[in-house]
């Protein structure tokens, strides 16, 4: 058959199989080699049409393969058939995210979701000693929890977050003496730098809560939103409390674990005065004041601080009431409000020298433990610790 244009040849062959297209191409090759009278121009047109028809057939075949494995999930990106080879990278994929929440709802998983879930669980089994059924939170969900904490004007917001999946040692070096003027030729004595390490241990945080079995009927996005909120409340409320009052024994150490005496604290009898705040601020060692903040609970703020004024009648506490969430200041320094701090206790210091480490967040589910109540139990665990990195970065004003 003769073709005047490549389009004509393409339209003729596009409905034929790849085998038929390749057979015709071989026939044209033999004609060119054996027939001296063959019309080379017409054969070239036909070959171009065959080439385009074969390419079109291959593209359609690839598209059909994608459609076979395409499973749209509400709120998640379109799934693919390929997964990263590293389990940590799989944690960031939408496939593992949907598999994680489907498994908690006892919903069936697609093939690629099963592969993603299995890859993370195999690494989890090799990593820790807890139950291998514990599901590690998807990266996106873990980030959403931290974002919720960042919305709070609290200690977890101001303190340094490491999020390193291991025990952590932070070296701290004290300030060195100033350089000395040197007389030419005179000997100079060296000085040693002796860093002290602050160690963050691996304590367990745990919380068990129950959800009605009707949660299994929730849409995936709704269930994730609900579970994320519960996780944020459970883990970060505990971390907030530890940053304030943790003892350091089988738990994180907080501000209350610092040894306060006459060199780094002040007291007041009934209510603090303007002079008490000035004197307390003066106790903080030079160098820490540049990034210092005041920290107290809401009750202390409104009962003891809110109405205070200086000698000229100017208020100590300043807040932009016209803008919700605007920073508040006391003597020109930001105020951190946390209900975990004890009443009538006010801290002043640089909270960049307060740290916490929160990692390995996991969720397990059980339908047997609350079988009679038609509830599903969820156990949330994490490994965490917190403590003041440099104790001298904080001073205290409290009721005697």
Automatic annotation (TrEMBL):
Pfam families xref list: Phage_capsid
Annotated source species: Sporomusa silvacetica DSM 10669
Domain of life of the organism encoding this protein: Bacteria
Keywords annotated in UniProt: Coiled coil
Name assigned to this protein: Phage capsid-like C-terminal domain-containing protein
Domain Phage capsid-like C-terminal, chain residue ranges per copy: 136-397
The keyword Manganese appears for this protein: no
Coiled coil stretches, renumbered: 33-60
Subcellular location: Virion
InterPro entries noted in UniProt: Phage_capsid (IPR024455), Phage_capsid-like_C (IPR054612)
Gene3D superfamilies per the UniProt record, alphabetical: hypothetical protein PF0899 domain, Major capsid protein gp5
Main location: virion
The keyword Coiled coil is annotated on this UniProt entry: yes
């Amino acid at each position: 058959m003769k073709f005047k244009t490549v389009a004509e040849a393409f339209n003729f062959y596009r409905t034929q199989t790849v085998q038929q297209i390749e057979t015709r191409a071989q026939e044209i090759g033999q004609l060119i080699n054996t027939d001296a009278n063959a019309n080379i121009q017409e054969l070239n047109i036909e070959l171009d049409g065959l080439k385009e028809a074969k390419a079109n057939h291959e593209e359609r075949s690839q598209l059909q393969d994608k459609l076979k494995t395409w499973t749209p999930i509400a709120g998640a990106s379109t799934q693919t058939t390929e997964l990263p080879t590293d389990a940590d990278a799989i944690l960031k994929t939408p496939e593992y995210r949907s598999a994680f929440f489907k498994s908690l709802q006892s919903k069936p998983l697609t093939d690629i979701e099963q592969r993603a879930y299995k890859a993370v669980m195999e690494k989890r089994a090799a990593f820790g000693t807890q139950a291998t059924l514990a599901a590690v939170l998807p990266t996106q969900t873990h980030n959403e929890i931290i974002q919720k904490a960042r919305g709070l004007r609290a200690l977890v917001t101001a303190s340094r977050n490491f999020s390193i999946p291991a025990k952590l040692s932070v070296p701290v070096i004290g300030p060195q003496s100033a350089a000395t003027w040197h007389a030419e030729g005179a000997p100079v004595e060296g000085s040693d730098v002796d860093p002290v390490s602050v160690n963050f241990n691996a304590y367990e945080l745990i919380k068990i809560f129950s959800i009605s079995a009707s949660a299994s009927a929730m849409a995936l996005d709704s269930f994730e939103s609900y579970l994320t909120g519960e996780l944020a409340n459970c883990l970060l409320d505990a971390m907030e409390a530890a940053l304030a009052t943790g003892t350091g024994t089988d738990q994180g150490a907080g501000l209350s674990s610092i040894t306060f005496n006459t060199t780094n604290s002040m007291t007041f009898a009934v209510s603090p005065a303007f002079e008490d705040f000035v004197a307390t601020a003066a106790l903080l060692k030079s160098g820490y004041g540049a990034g210092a903040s005041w920290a107290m609970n809401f009750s202390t703020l409104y009962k003891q601080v809110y109405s205070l004024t200086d000698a000229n009648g100017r208020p100590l506490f300043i807040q932009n009431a016209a803008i919700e969430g605007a920073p508040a200041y006391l003597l020109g320094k930001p105020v951190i409000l946390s209900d975990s701090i004890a009443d009538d206790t006010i801290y002043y210091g640089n909270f960049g020298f307060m740290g916490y480490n929160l990692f390995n967040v996991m969720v397990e589910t059980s339908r047997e433990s609350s079988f009679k109540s038609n509830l599903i139990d969820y156990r949330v665990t994490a490994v965490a610790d917190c403590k003041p990195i440099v104790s001298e970065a904080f001073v205290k004003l409290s009721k005697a």
